Automatic annotation (TrEMBL):
Ranges annotated as spanning the membrane: none
Protein source organism: Vibrio japonicus
Family designation: Belongs to the small heat shock protein (HSP20) family.
Classification via InterPro entries: A-crystallin/Hsp20_dom (IPR002068), HSP20-like_chaperone (IPR008978), Small_HSP (IPR031107)
Protein name: Hsp20/alpha crystallin family protein
Pfam families: HSP20
Gene3D superfamilies: 2.60.40.790
Domain SHSP: from-to ranges: 27-140
Amino acid sequence: MSLVPRDNWTDFSRFFDHAFPTLRSRFETDSFSPRVDIVEKDESFEIRADLPGVKKEDIALKCQQGVLSIEASMESSKETEKEGKVIHSERYSGKMSRSFDLGASIKVNEISAEFKDGVLTVIVPKSEAPPSEQHQIPVR
């Protein structure tokens, strides 16, 4: 008798569902790895990163030698009470860092960023001449 159906061995993610069911659900809900979309337009790059649960003041952007870096941190805690007593308490803190090589032909001083409804949108205008210094980008 087989405890794991034969067809599940070919689907790697479902294998972990059966082998470690509690771990898979925790990694999916607690891990801090945002989804990012990058769109190249004629005159700029547009980068959108989903950062749910992150506060605007916990986001840092910088661009140096054509590499855009996004850093974000977050903290969360959960507490379950029953009849006035804490029966379960969890805390999570994490830091994320992503870098994107946009090349040297960008207008570093004209990069703009906006954070709204958990989505960070960064507009990076293209240029002809490469920049020579690091530039901090404010998040509005």
